[in-house]
Design brief:
78 residues, mainly alpha, 4 helices, 54% helix, TIGR03643 family protein, CHP03643
Length: 78
């Protein structure tokens, strides 16, 4: 995976309104894989802050949201 992709994944993980399903759709990564990328690329304290922030957050998990839609400015070409 290229550093540009990793940077974008980290950015999407930090965004409150970007669900993990959007990351999976765009990059083919499950939530667990995105967490591993965050763990490897963030400082330990930053990772802890991020995990605490996203754990159980409605906007990061589409299953917890009312809506099943997400918007992506980087759509995958089929």
């Amino acid at each position: 995976m290229e550093s540009i992709d990793i940077d974008r994944i980290i950015e999407m993980c930090w965004e409150d309104r970007t669900p993990f399903e959007a990351i999976e759709y765009q990059f083919g990564l499950k939530e667990e894989d995105a967490i591993k990328i965050m763990r490897r690329n963030l400082k330990p304290k930053s990772f802890k802050v991020w995990r605490k922030r996203v754990s159980g957050r409605n906007t990061k998990h589409m299953a917890l949201k009312d809506s099943t839609r997400f918007k992506s400015t980087h759509k995958r070409k089929l």
